[in-house]
Amino acid sequence: MMNDIEIKGMWKDYDKMIEESKVLNLQSWVLNLRCFETLQTQKAKSNLRSLIIPEIVVILLGVGWVWFLVMMLSYLFSQTIIAISLIILIALTTASIVMYIQNITVIAQINYSDSITKTQERIAFLQSSIVNSIRIGWLQLPFYTTCYISNKLLTAGSIQFWIIQVSVTLLFIWLAVFLFRNISLKNSKKRWVKHLLQGYGLSRVSKAMDFLEEIEEFKKDMVY
What we know:
This protein has helices at 4-49, 52-76, 80-109, 116-138, 151-156, 159-182, 191-199, 202-223. The chain is mainly alpha-helical. It has one domain (4-223). Helix 1 (4-49) packs antiparallel against helix 8 (202-223). The longest helix has 46 residues, at 4-49. It is elongated, with a radius of gyration of 29 Å. The two termini are 41 Å apart.
């Protein structure tokens, strides 16, 4: 029969094996986590970076459009309704351009070595900024229905013209307000809102967020 010394020695060897096994498992967990984090952050980075070129194109087109509107305004400043419409269009387009520049800045400033939570906060801010730029863009609609009304037309327009004009303008005002109020992240599960937002690249931002959330899920699964 084994004496007490031999039994204690066996227990020590067993405890040592358990501790070594724990260390190896922890090292394996850390290695797997790092590999998964690297893979997911690269996917998120790729999705967000792919938005930069389209955003730059929109900015350049927006700057060109603002320049054209300013030139129009310089020639038609004496035309009251036209001038007011052009000024509002210039202001709203400029606001959209500023937001697109902000979006690019946010994408460029995201540090993927930061904590997942901080990176998610930056991406959430980017989502909100993109949605707001879309909402502001749609507010321009009514003013495209009034930017041709000259002073002469303002005083000499027939009743039929004004019935049609007012009806169309009111319709576009309603549409602009409707879109401004309904286009939001809160309503992103609605089919038409979802398709609209995807057209502006928001699906790529959502995918980037999903990739980072998968890291958190991976951590929970590894713990349990």
